[in-house]
């Protein structure tokens, strides 16, 4: 099983941060590759992307100013398979990546990703009042997993807040 490469660069508008890759993503080497994951549809429907991208095009989003990484790099069936030690190590690695690349926004794809990273227990959707890394806006968006029970229109509405913020900054 492959470790999925990060897609990071300097000057990005958004870095999307997931828990860790799915088994399917590990098999094909691309972010959000599980066909039941709604990530690519959410980006398109919220107008963060001009068209529907496929997982195999993940590196192409660097041209749009978007990068990808995870708090834990090891592919698993689910977040319950991630150990406390992996989260602790991943937290340090992720912090170093964000400090190095300084994206405008760190978008955490799921509340649990953000709580693991920030060591906080309760967060709301959207922009966070305080950032772990100075000068980076931290945004918490719903997970794009097909297991999420939130209505798709609500999920898209939250991602649209991010789209408006990025559009206003250009």
UniProtKB/TrEMBL annotation:
Keywords: DNA damage, DNA repair, Hydrolase. The keyword ATP-binding does not apply. GO terms for molecular function: pyrimidine-specific mismatch base pair DNA N-glycosylase activity; uracil DNA N-glycosylase activity. Gene3D superfamilies: Uracil-DNA glycosylase-like domain. The keyword RNA-binding does not apply. It comes from the Bacteria. One of its GO terms (biological process) is base-excision repair, AP site formation. Residues 6-152 form the Uracil-DNA glycosylase-like domain. PANTHER family: G/T AND G/U MISMATCH-SPECIFIC DNA GLYCOSYLASE (PTHR12159), G_T MISMATCH-SPECIFIC THYMINE DNA GLYCOSYLASE (PTHR12159:SF9). This is Mismatch-specific DNA-glycosylase. It comes from Paenibacillus glacialis.
């Amino acid at each position: 099983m492959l470790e999925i490469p990060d897609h990071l660069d300097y000057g990005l508008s958004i870095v999307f941060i997931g828990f860790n890759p799915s088994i399917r993503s590990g098999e094909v080497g691309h972010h959000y590759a599980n066909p039941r994951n709604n990530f690519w549809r959410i980006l398109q429907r919220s107008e963060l992307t001009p068209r529907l991208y496929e997982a195999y095009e993940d590196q192409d989003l660097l041209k749009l100013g978007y990068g990808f990484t995870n708090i834990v790099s090891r592919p698993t069936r689910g977040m319950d398979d991630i150990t406390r030690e992996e989260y602790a190590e991943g937290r340090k690695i992720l912090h170093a990546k964000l400090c190095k690349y300084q994206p405008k926004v760190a978008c955490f794809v799921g509340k649990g990703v953000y709580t693991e990273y920030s060591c906080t227990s309760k967060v709301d959707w959207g922009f966070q009042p305080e950032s772990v890394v100075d000068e980076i806006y931290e945004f918490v968006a719903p997970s794009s997993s097909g297991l999420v029970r939130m209505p798709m229109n609500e999920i898209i509405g939250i991602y649209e807040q991010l789209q408006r913020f990025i559009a206003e900054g250009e």
